[in-house]
Structure formats: structure tokens, C-alpha cells
Amino acid sequence: MIIAVNTRILSGDTRAGKFLLDTLVIIAAGNPAHQFVFITENDLTTIPVLANVKKIVIKQQTNSSLLWKLWYNYKLPSTLRKASADVLLSANGVCSLRTKVPQCLMVNDIDFIHHPEWYDKKYLSFIRLNIAACLQKATSIITLSAHTKNEIIGKYKTGGYKIATVYPGASNGYQPINSEAREAIKEKYADGKEYFLFNGAIHAKSNLVNLLKAFSIFKKRQKSSMHLIIATATIPEKDIFIESLRLYKYRSELKILAGLDETEIHPVTAAAYSCINLSPSGADINILLNSMQSAVPVIAGNNTAAKEILGDAALYANPSSFEAIAEQLMLLYKDENKRNELIKKGIELASKYTADKTAQQLWQKILAAASQ
Fold first, then answer.
1. Are residues 143 and 206 in the same domain?
2. Coil vs helix vs strand at 321
3. Which residues contact 103 (CB under 8 A, 6 or more apart)?
4. Both 152 and 235 in a single domain?
5. Are residue 122 and residue 190 in the same domain, yes or no?
């Protein structure tokens, strides 16, 4: 069987793309008898080097609604025919409306409804105009939480029978490190000090401005030498968070680490005092599970999707309230028993949500879509 995968992420959510790609690597490696065709829009996209995987580039230089429609509804179907694809897995709630190939559509979330201010206006217009048709066209739909599944059913009147939930799992490679390795990482990245870690995209949904304000309150009240590390794939040129750093009082105790490879982000995660990510995205919940698997306690946004997966193994804060975020930072810092309790619960939870289980469940959904 030939499985085509659209690895393009229209919203620029690199974390969602990385989560999907990592899961598909596990699937491809575990199913060498099947061929996987990874379709992307540029030569820079990293594709795994496996005997049963190849990359096809459908180039597009400029982003616009018209060109996106051309890419999805004309260029993509042509590529699928040439590749003799039996099924297409597509991400980000967008699929082709002009192909007969069965399509398995992944929908990370529909936050563009609740928070349109988080998204580029061109993307927002495109997704609003096309998501209903894509949901109807898709052979099957996959969400990363039951919450998103129920939202889709309620908003778009899509039959629940065609929607399945595949929960994100902790990625392979994340594990606790010993005290010596931990001290070495702290020395390298945080002047030898303990640090809170945010790992994810510098994006409006991450509420990083409020995290800065919360860290300021923490520093003022606790008189601590604690650092804050922001680990991200790329640093956007124009962003309110980046602009706010110029006059930030605790700038010397804040580090931005951009473009760390996997061999480095693993120990940076494991050496953290705590990991905080307030985004409601399922792909970002994967980041928190990675931290739990590394024996690091986490603070998540108090949204339904996060609570559905993380339960009582995490602390929660209202992302729009920097005071609430600060309270949770201080709770972890002052209450060692609570921190140890969260570490224990987190390790137990992460063992139930693994990358291999996620890959196995996703593979079954791809096979089911291909058979229809």
C-alpha cells in the first residue's frame, strides 16, 4: 500500500508538524512493507531517511487563499495520481476537495473559532471558508482530544461515527537525567541556576507575555535566583513578546534557545525545575507529556483538552491571568512535597501515553480510511 502524507502545516504551527512527523516516522519504520510518500511545499522540510519513505515537493512561493486552493485542489490531486496513492493523511483541518483518494484528516483543534486574534488573517479566512467542506469530504477525521471531537460535532454537525480521538503521547528519547548531567545543563544554559522552562512556539496562543509578567511577580515575591528559559524552533521577527523583552526587568535571567536539536532539547527538558506551556493545542500537550516522562512537573493552561489528558498530574493556570500563573510558579517553588507528588504522577501518566501507542492507533485509523 502507498500512504501519502501531507506534511504541510498552513498555520505555521511547527510543533504540530514535528509531532505529526515524529509519529509517522514510528509508523513507517514499523511497516517496511508499505511505501510512504511525504508531500511538502519546500526542499527544507526534514524527512526521515528510511528505505520505504520518499519526499515529493510541490512548491509554492507565495501564500494566499487562491494559491492554497490551487495547491490542495489541483496540484495535490495530480501528485496523488502520479504516486498511485491508496490513502492520504492530511493535517491541520485541510484536505483536498478534488481527489477520489480516501483521506484521513487530522484536526489538532479549532481554536480559530474561539481566538481568531491568534491567527494570520489570510489563514483565518481560508480555514473558515474551507473547513466545513473538508470535514464533509474526509473519509475519516482524527482529533487529539475528545473535547475537539465534540466541538466539531457541535459546530459543524459532522457525524461522530467518522471522528476518532488519538491522544498525543510522550515522544521517545525523553527520560530523567542524573544530578551531574542536570548541573551541567544548568551551568551551560542558566548560569548554574534552577530554571522554569517553556518549550514551544512563540505564538499568541502560548501567552508568553503573561508568562513574563508572572515570572516578574515570582521574582519580586520569592527573591529567587530562578531563571526562565524559552526553547523554541524559530524566533519571529515581529512579535509582541519579542518586543516586550527589550525593557524587561529580568532580561538577564531569561534565556531564549532557538533551534536546539533533539539531542539537546531532551536534557534541557529533563534539567528544568518545572515546564510550563499554557497552549490548548494537543501538540503542545505532547510537550508537557515529554516533560512528565523526564520527571519534571508541569503547569498547563486550564483548558478542557489539557485536563482531559493530564488529569491531576499537572497544575493548571488561567492563561489570561498572569497572577494565576504566578501563583502556580510560587506553589511549585515553595511546596516541595507537592512538586514531588506531581513528578510521581507525571511519570505514571506518561507511561500510559506513549509515542508508540499514538503511532499504533493512528496507523489503524489510516488503514481503516484506506479500506473505505
1. no
2. coil
3. 87, 88, 89, 90, 95, 96, 137, 138, 139, 140, 369
4. no
5. no
Q: How confident is the model at residue 45 (pLDDT cuts 50, 70, 90)?
A: low
Spatial separation of the C-alpha atoms in residues 12 and 14, rounded to whole Å: 6
- Same domain, yes or no: 131 and 256: no
Smallest CA-to-CA distance from 285 within 263, 307, 317, 266 is with: 307
What is residue 92's predicted lDDT score, i.e. its pLDDT? 77
Q: State the pLDDT at residue 353.
A: 95
Range of the domain at 31: 2-169+355-370
* Model pTM above 0.70: yes
Whole-angstrom Cα distance, residue 168 to residue 309? 9
Q: Residue 87's beta-bridge partner residues?
A: 3
Model confidence at 9, pLDDT cuts 50, 70, 90, reads: confident
pLDDT of 7 reads: 83
Decide if 16 is inside a domain.
yes
Whether residues 253 and 159 share a domain: the answer is no
> CA triplet 266, 108, 74: central angle to 5 degrees?
115
Predicted pLDDT of residue 282: 75
